[in-house]
From TrEMBL:
UniProtKB keywords: Signal
Name assigned to this protein: Sugar ABC transporter substrate-binding protein
Biased composition (Low complexity): 33-49
Region (Disordered): 27-57
Signal sequence region: 1-23
Domain of life assignment: Bacteria
Stored Pfam families: SBP_bac_1
Coiled-coil segments: none
Amino acid sequence: MNYSFKNVLSAGLIAVMSASLLAACGNDKDAKPSPSGSPSASSATSADPQQKSDKPFNGQKLSIVTANHPWGDVIKTLAPQFEEKTGIKVDIQSFFEDQLTQKLTVQFTAGSKTPDVFMFRPMQDIKLFYKNGWVQAIDTYAKADEAYDFNDFSKTSISSTTVDGNLAGIPLITEQHILYYRKDLLEKAGIPVPKTMDELIAAAGKLHDPKNEVYGFVSRGQASPLVGQISSFIYSEGGEFMKDGNSIINAPEAVKGMSIYANLLKDYAPPGVLNMSWPQAIGVFAEGKAAFFADANSIYKNAIDPEKSKVADKVGYAQFPAGSAGSNPFNITSWGIAMNSQSGNKDAAWEFMKWATSKEIVLETQKKGNPGPRLSVWANPEGITAYPPELAQVTMETQKGGVDHSLPQVSNVSEARDIIGGIVQKAILGEDIQKAADQGHKEFQALIDNEKK
């Protein structure tokens, strides 16, 4: 077949241009990195160069699972912005806390590729999920983009979502252990806000007036729920749940911390405290029946909602009182967001995670009352509009330190909580706490040893 010189020249030019375009695609500096650092396949398959640069994931779909949580509610309202920006379609489903863990466990055990992205509880789930290989490590993703500003996250929020040196998720919701108090009762009695544990005990004793249904102190008394609360008492006495893979819950420091908590409830809490988790405990405080309440700052609305609280305008907030080792409250990530290791859309999944945890979106969610992990948002006056000024100040101070976990760092957290919570309940009932701690230590150590096998 004969070709004219013009046809040959045209064909040559087309070939050169095609080669140039292919070379350009192979060196696209905007391609999103995969965990191994290589460009994503999805970002190199678009036929339209303009579309590739603006919406490299256009047409992809993501399955997102959240808890029935206020953060998830806000994200659902903002999701259309993400879809418009990226071209990615998202299907967001929500489940109650226990249902969420059960659903994820069943799907991941079966090797499901969905959901691509999911909310999880670092204190409860992170060790087990990571150990089982269900979570994609995202260090390369999070640290590759300077504009994302990974260093803007508080240090403890990141360490809460880190396992064996690998970033297993991005923090969403943070919590700090604080002291709630009744301003009017302290003012009337001329008692300053307690700054130390000894001052708290003394103040609770002075304000304890059970005949008039005013109790000195209230907090969680149920065996499992109370473990997160005693953590700060233990840390502030220099103790821990475990060290170097061994239980130390019967060490003097841990026993002293548990003893202080148990005695506060035994001596100054209302009847029925052994059956109280946080809703019941803060309910007592909101009814005006307790002078002090120690728990997470994230539940503050229950104390100041005029429809729920009789003391809405009388609530004060203070940093966790210092023990013999100082004030060392938990400062944790209560909810995080992670990527399914089996997802077939990892780069698109990271695009959603990056958007949902960006400074702009964290600001929007925090303005709705969801305490976020970004320090710049807390420093932004807009970021604290949903919080009482005193609470915002206490939160920002607590974020500077604290401990990055509130529960034992084992895979079987539920069993560990039952063991340790049982120690404190026995002490509340008047039993010998050292004897209970020694027995609990044996059971906890057996659990730890079993997980090492």
